[in-house]
């Protein structure tokens, strides 16, 4: 699936192979998605699909150093609940799932875990898990990373507009590259692309930096889309994915094992 | 993947298609697995793989009546935690995930949900969810079903021994039929096959019916296997899967919608 | 109360006697009930009354091997909440009570606990407790058992109809034998006895086996009764109770202590 | 059991009688106990036994105005966990049980609930339940009361010493009057009776009023007894119980219904 | 701030000074308030202000023996939620905060903690924390105390009426002495002062002793005031505060340290 | 305290004034701190002190538009628990406190809340609260902001080194300006200032951007300090605070009220 080294997925291993992996592959990479609207042109599973592809490619890049754990298909998506098909966990439940998942890995001997989340709505909960683990599992090292945010340069190179993001240029490009069967090019429509389209509160919430004001997406875009996904190409997607994988793989190789 | 009718998976739908599905496909089928040891010859994801295949085939059988929701890859597996690679949720967290999943579906308008669990360890938690939903969501109808248990006749026809079950004849047969790449025929070994191999307490726990005494699997089998998976054939697997799918599909068709 | 051996109830012991019991009576039997409607002819406490009598009789049968712990009068009864007088705990709270109860026994040195539940609605929660204890208290052995289900033959011998169960032939018979002052023979009425009386969804929910669909009892029976309690006799009740006690006592005697 | 008016116990009613009771008996009285050590001479169930007797007698006194609900046999007893046989719930779980019990009564139409607790260790949790109900069930009136504390005069008349209380003069007297079969007069021993027997911290914790310092009972008394139970008589017990019942009954009669 | 000895407040210490304090000041005093209505004449922070002043004065009195920890500004105030500005925690959350606070102190080596609460609504939750700590932190000694209740004599000397208490004579006097800038003498009004002003249920709830019936304050007083705050003087406040501080300081000095 | 407009603090208002504030001051600003080590030269309360000053100054700037609510003195500080004096809440409890605080404000009619946190460790939990409120309180607008991060330019102008941050140049400067009595200039020491001082894992954790790896501070710095606080001046602090206040005030003024 990734074209380079070998990908070891825990889901495909036997328990005996898992026991070996604890010794030989000291890192577990967990792909985390969301199950939420991605506009009229992309599938509800978009975030997980991207996370899984990135996790696999990273594992291939660091050949043998990491195994890919089972995926987390459901994430924290209350801001999309107004759109049909979105399934969300509360922040508490999502964090509990990650905590118990990591605790199981810890029981088997793993001490390094990296979550790759295709969905920014999981970031805060992943951080709270990282914090609580400092007290409950002091000998564990837990890291997490978003996807698209690691390829800021490649995204900027796409010439995105004033408002962009969810289900826009960058996510669509990745999907055209990684899973084109989940994109309907003919149904892609421009979502909100300029601040002027927003009501004043929504506009305020889109300013960079802080203070941070979180709103539901039905207030930001009638279609749930921010940016113009029609401008996306598979080539852009490849650039983004390559940058993301390179950056994470470099991090993993730099992570001392013991 | 199923060869008969059309399978609609929510994961592949857009939000607009999901909105239509609420109207046209009044039932959501959720595949639930476990992530746990399946002996030296089968993959850790065995239970989810079987649940997903069954869910897809049922959806195909009832053509259009049901959509398949995103999978639950992690289940309740504390009894297997002694074997490397097993990842378990607590019963409370697993139930919370299902409850919030179902609540999201309910917000979009679905009123019928069926969980297909490839792992018997989830049965009790699914029942507690069903009970709590009677008070919290009185207008929802929630059903769940195991897999192998629906094909008792086909399994009996395989000539299983005194002790069989987890990772034994029936599960291996299903995997040989559905996902042979996740089975290593050369590594299959007979697990515990007779009561005489067990210590008296373990023997007591394997008696049919009640009282029920739950033990960890490291007490029941050195390899984690109950029964002799070497006796399994893909043809047996097909008989089991066919029986299971037929039984569930019949249930779904009998379930009034409205 | 039981007529055979000696019944030791923790409730009647002093702390010093309890300390001795930890040494001499390695098993604690916990009677669990529900507090719920039992139709127009039987008392709300029916399930606890039967569980307590069975627990006492088993303790008498295994003379000295077991002590009877304090009862759990409230169970999981959301399906009966539509009928006046029903008091229900959530599945989470019921499980917490059992877990903390067992943890206290464990602190005093007991390592074997058996819950006898007169109410099937508790089964799933008891199983979740058993599962969680495998991780939290690995040196404890926890078993549970229903009552009526252990006497399938005796019940079949009563000639029950197509639909029977809650507050029907078997439960009424037990009460006529064990606690006739809590039965009003003149008020006993036939409840739902045939599938034809049910709406299609309710009918589906009464099919044996799986999938399992749980409904509220106000949908199954106007009086809350399934079956015809007027056909019950005290003699039938004695047969049922004897079978149940024999079966559980045999289990207890087979349970190695140490 | 009480000798005066009629006692209606929910446990003995049918669901139809319970429906009538909602109309005719606007108050539910809940007896709450503890399951904990009461020294070498009294049973572990002492607190529940006294609460049940008092509840019954109050119900008889206010003839028809109140029904007695099912008992709560387990309470908050962490301070006694050092003594064999004590079973304790956490404060959180005990409060959850009471809250869900009361919520069930509220669903059936009751709006007045009184808990009679034979165990002072439940007082704080009962108060937290009362506080939370002000927000969650604003149309419910929830009261609770201890037992012995209502008979301060009668207890003072017994001539108790400097240190007295748990399993001492007053509790033993009540049991000699109400349930003499649960008292072993020959095993009654004097527990801690003077401050001089205590270490300085324990002495501090026994001063009346505030600040309040809570210690485990194994620090206060080798036998778990405070005071001298040998001085108790059934006649003293009758005086105490009469005073307690009179006081509660007067409260109940003064409680407006509607 | 207190005029006598030295007050050490953790909030003003560095981590190195805190490390020394663990050795030299074996007791931590925690001021706990509420944030709730105090009638038309006093500030919402009244309870915390009084608790902080008392804590500081006690620390000064026992010179060096105790440090004052950070304050708990929010308490358990559901009974005042009907009045604007009141902020309340649930009893569960308030207890969790105290438990985690104390656990942190325990990790640093402190073994004695005293909470001074200016708000009676916290009493029950503080007691539940004390109970749970007996099991979770058996080597910790945890005490708590109210404020005004320690000066019963001084309050009685003010000649209060039949109904008095919240935001009445005693609390206002303390504030006139400790924080006159938070009192508006011209806006002080008499609240409920006699039982006759109350409806029968409210009257019942104000009887001393037990049973205890908790009502919302909007049912007890239109202004939220019980008693006549206009009768308060700063001199009375000084008497009350002096008595309270003396009593607590005496307790602290009597508390053995190791 | 702020020198410009008027500061309205809820803590100083009466309930009647709070009722007016709901109408006239549609925004509540909540200062949130941490209680944690700030090296050998600054007080444990540093983060709250800064948050409170900023909140007050913002309220003064937007004259009348906002009220300042009571402070949250305890935050999420597990990474500092290795240093004496640090008091931490779990992420779950901190979030529960904020949620219940905001729910109380919502009951009184406020619909806009802004938390100013002086501690970055609270950021993730505040975000989870914001997410959960989208479902539970859809008509509420909840924002939060850190402090120092809003003055990136001013901080950069101080010429900070390769490693800086906690208790370093910027925080010390703010304290020298706002609360010099809580700084001990003579005890300020340089903490970790270059990556070379760190072990490889710690070095990895300090790289900007993602992946994010969270470590305990005892692994990052022997004194708990990152950067060189000796380089801080009150003038720098004033620049930082001015920039922060300006930025937040501008946000508040841009926030539509209704």
UniProtKB/TrEMBL annotation, chains A, B, C, D, E, F:
Give a yes or no for keyword Transit peptide in this entry: no
Sequence similarity? Belongs to the creatininase superfamily.
Q: Would the keyword Hydrolase turn up in this protein's UniProt record?
A: yes
List the protein's name: Creatininase family protein
Its keywords, alphabetically, are: Hydrolase, Metal-binding, Zinc
Xref: Gene3D superfamilies: Creatininase (3.40.50.10310)
Q: Which cofactor does it need?
A: Zn(2+)
What InterPro entries does the record point to? Creatininase-like_sf, Creatininase/forma_Hydrolase
Species assigned in the record: Allokutzneria oryzae
């Amino acid at each position: 699936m990734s074209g380079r080294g070998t990908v070891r997925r825990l889901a495909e291993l036997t328990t005996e192979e898992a026991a070996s992996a604890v010794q030989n592959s000291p890192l577990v990479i967990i792909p985390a998605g969301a199950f939420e609207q991605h506009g009229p042109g992309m599938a509800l599973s978009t975030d997980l699909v991207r996370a899984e592809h990135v996790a696999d490619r990273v594992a291939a890049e660091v050949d043998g150093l990491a195994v890919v754990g089972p995926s987390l298909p459901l994430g924290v998506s209350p801001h999309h609940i107004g759109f049909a098909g979105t399934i969300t966990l509360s922040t508490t439940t999502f964090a509990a799932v990650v905590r118990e998942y990591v605790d199981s890995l810890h029981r088997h001997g793993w001490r390094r875990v990296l979550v790759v989340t295709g969905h920014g709505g999981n970031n805060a909960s992943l951080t709270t898990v990282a914090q609580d683990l400092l007290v409950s599992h002091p000998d564990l090292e837990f890291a997490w990373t978003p996807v698209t945010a690691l390829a800021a340069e490649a995204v900027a190179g796409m010439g995105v507009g004033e408002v962009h993001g969810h289900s826009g240029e960058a996510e669509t490009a990745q999907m055209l590259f990684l899973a084109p069967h989940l994109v309907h090019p003919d149904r892609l429509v421009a979502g909100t692309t300029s601040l002027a389209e927003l009501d004043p509160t929504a506009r305020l919430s889109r300013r960079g930096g802080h203070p941070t004001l979180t709103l539901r997406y039905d207030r930001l875009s009638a279609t749930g889309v921010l940016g113009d996904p029609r401008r996306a190409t598979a080539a852009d997607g490849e650039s983004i994915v390559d940058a993301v994988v390179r950056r994470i793989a470099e991090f993993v190789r730099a992570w001392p094992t013991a």
